[in-house]
Specification:
heterodimer; A: mainly alpha; 19 helices; B: mainly alpha; Four Helix Bundle (Hemerythrin (Met), subunit A); 2 domains; 78% helix
């Protein structure tokens, strides 16, 4: 019997590998770290993420695939890898003081977060439906546990169990979709699926498979009508976990979403573009309208994240090179903006007592002018005001939609952005125009939270004022 | 003949799966699940994949299900009572579930698989050996998914411990 040599190319999975190794080192380090030094595990995790980001950067332009066509290191995947690593590093900066204040500072927190990052990187660089599915599971499983990490809080447990049950359900849909696509095309490799569909017309079985794949992706990125879990999970989970999953999951899942649909299934574009356009309209509209009614900041940001998923979906409907690069830029802009907003909310909390109702923010500007300013900048960026990152992102996405003849979709997007201004400005009005509520004095903003906030706000402004380098980077991110 | 066996085990699998969801006693549900696993193993045999069939019986019907039954007996949760809160959703769930079922039957009932056959025809498997084929694939083409699965299992173990073990910082107070 001949000896079979597997197609091992560790270099192209280096980012995911480094993150995984860091997770294991942190897991072992937890055993020998005394309770008062747990924060070092957080610093170690950030160091691992920085190394992984450098590894991703050194692969830029390599366009190499490996492991029998299972993964690829193309610029599209690497851009998302960098975005995910950035979001994880900022989330950990926010987490170190947060989990200490809430008495949940266990090393496993970082282990689970890093494992989730590894899954996200795998998902963003996968070129085979099986690997996409495994990446999806590897990113989801740690998040189910992280959502329930505040075990003493029943709402955190509720978030964990809800996310787990609905996530498992949607994974089943996704897996069934893979099975049907495999049945119709005889392969799970994205390139081979595209080649198979270029030769023969699709069948009803393939259409159903593709529909089920879409349900799976739609659940993970929280598109209406698959969004029901989002407000409860985002609300119940520890705030730093919410911050992390609201941005990083979107980057990874949208990466695989774009890769699967735009790259492997262009033959069925006529069908899925129409469905995606309807989903985009529903998602934007319902997300923004529901956000109007929220009095809790975490729930408001949850509905806002649903609305933003709708905007990004417009880029998929556009199905062009510009659509792809605009989605990449938008995901990066949304990542830094949303993390900044959550960071400011965390900065304004009083030890273990969080201020999550919008009316709690009354008078914050007088006591914490810098944090209030940071929150204002991030909320304006989310609403799409120039000169912040969110404006450039929306501009690029709506531009890509108009170019490809989906102007009506762009119009609905703009109208929705107008609606969103109202609820994004409500906390701002409270902070600047209301009398201070009791208990503001004596709150110190943790230095690490301040650092994360500073990085996020500088990125929001830099991406808004000098977007050209990031756009050029995103434009190089075409799927190979 | 094999078609007859297929329909027999398919019917058992569907009925047992329904029983698993519908039955109120968790032990009965677990036993129905065992029946599903065994019928699926029979299907794998029909597909000339005896290794997968044996693995299915050993791991799912054996190890995992025994674990389920152990947990059920240790916790003795009694019969299921949590359905009342979801009454309003039940009608909708049945409606949409039935619609999806009709759609799947309509489409998949008439589906024709592409005529191209893969590398692993029954003859090829018979020549190479079923276990050898699975092993070779697992360590060549499917090496990466195989390794990702191992990380996934590690994460699951860590997660279970995080959720289940006593927290030191709490017990200290």
């Amino acid at each position: 019997m001949p000896i079979l040599v597997p197609d091992i190319n560790l270099r192209i999975i280096a980012p995911a590998l480094i993150v995984t190794v860091t997770a294991i080192v942190v897991l072992l380090g937890e055993l020998v770290t005394p309770a008062e030094r747990k924060r070092w595990l957080g610093y170690l995790s950030i160091a691992g993420l920085v190394v992984a980001a450098f590894a991703a950067f050194s692969l830029w332009g390599a366009n190499a695939s490996g492991f029998s066509g299972m993964v690829v290191a193309d610029n599209f995947g690497l851009f998302l890898t960098l975005t995910i690593a950035l979001s994880a590093a900022l989330s950990i900066l926010l987490s170190i003081p947060f989990i200490h204040a809430h008495e949940i500072d266990q090393g496993e927190y970082y282990v689970l977060l890093l494992a989730s990052v590894a899954g996200m990187i795998v998902m963003a660089t996968a070129t085979d439906l099986i690997v996409i599915f495994l990446g999806l599971e590897l990113l989801s499983l740690p998040l189910y546990i992280l959502a329930a990490f505040q075990r003493e809080d029943t709402r955190s447990l509720e978030a964990g169990i809800k996310y787990f049950l609905l996530g498992a359900f949607s994974s089943a849909f996704f897996l069934y979709g893979i099975a049907l696509v495999f049945g119709a095309t005889g392969t799970t490799n994205l390139a081979k699926i595209a080649a198979s569909l270029a030769q023969s017309a699709g069948s009803p079985m393939l259409s159903i498979g593709v529909g089920l794949l879409m349900v799976g992706f739609a659940f993970k990125v929280a598109l209406v009508p698959f969004h029901w879990w989002t407000p409860d999970v985002y609300d119940g989970a520890p705030t730093t976990v919410t911050a992390f999953m609201s941005v990083a999951v979107k980057a990874a899942a949208f990466g695989a979403f774009f890769r699967t649909f735009q790259f492997a299934l262009p033959a069925l574009a006529l069908d899925w573009r129409a469905v995606a356009a309807v989903l985009a309209v529903l998602t934007m509209t319902l997300g923004n309208v529901a956000a109007l009614l929220q009095s809790n900041v975490k729930r408001m940001l949850a509905y806002s994240s649903i609305a933003h998923a709708g905007y990004i979906l417009i880029a998929l409907v556009a199905m062009s090179a510009n659509g792809l690069s605009s989605a990449l830029f938008y995901l990066l802009a949304y990542t830094v903006t949303n993390l900044g907003a959550f960071g400011a909310v965390i900065a304004l909390s009083d030890g273990a007592r969080e201020r999550l109702e919008i009316k709690d923010f009354a008078g914050a500007a007088r006591e914490h002018p810098l944090v209030a300013l940071a929150l204002t900048i991030c909320l304006l960026s989310l609403a799409g005001f120039p000169p912040f990152a969110g404006f450039v992102g929306k501009f690029l996405i709506f531009g890509a939609a108009v170019e490809t003849g989906w102007a009506w979709l762009a119009v609905i997007g703009v109208l929705n952005s107008l609606v969103s201004v109202y609820f994004y400005l409500r906390p701002v009005v409270q902070m600047y125009m209301s009398e201070p509520a009791e208990g503001w004095s004596g709150i110190r903003v943790a230095p690490l939270v301040a650092l994360a906030l500073l990085i996020a706000v500088i990125s929001v402004i830099a991406l808004g004022v000098f977007p050209a380098p990031a756009i050029a980077l995103a434009a190089g991110g075409l799927i190979r | 003949m094999s078609l007859l066996v297929f329909y027999l085990f398919a019917a058992i699998a569907v009925l047992a799966a329904l029983g698993m969801v519908v039955l109120r006693n968790p032990v009965h549900s677990a036993l129905s699940l065992a029946l599903v696993f065994v019928s699926l193993a029979a299907m794998y045999v029909l597909l000339s994949a005896p290794f997968i069939a044996v693995a299915q019986v050993m791991i799912y019907a054996g190890a995992i299900l025994i674990l389920f039954v152990f947990v059920i007996m240790l916790l003795s949760p009694g019969t299921d009572q949590g359905v009342g809160a979801l009454k309003a959703q039940r009608g909708l769930a049945i409606l949409f579930g039935a619609a999806l079922l009709v759609l799947l039957i309509a489409v998949l009932g008439g589906a024709v698989l592409p005529p191209t056959r893969g590398t692993f025809t029954p003859e090829a498997i018979a020549a190479e050996g079923d276990t050898q084929a699975v092993g070779a694939l697992l360590f060549t083409n499917f090496l990466l998914p195989f390794e990702i699965t191992s990380i996934l299992l590690l994460v699951a173990i860590v997660g279970v411990i995080v959720l289940a073990k006593k927290r030191q910082s709490i017990s200290k107070q």
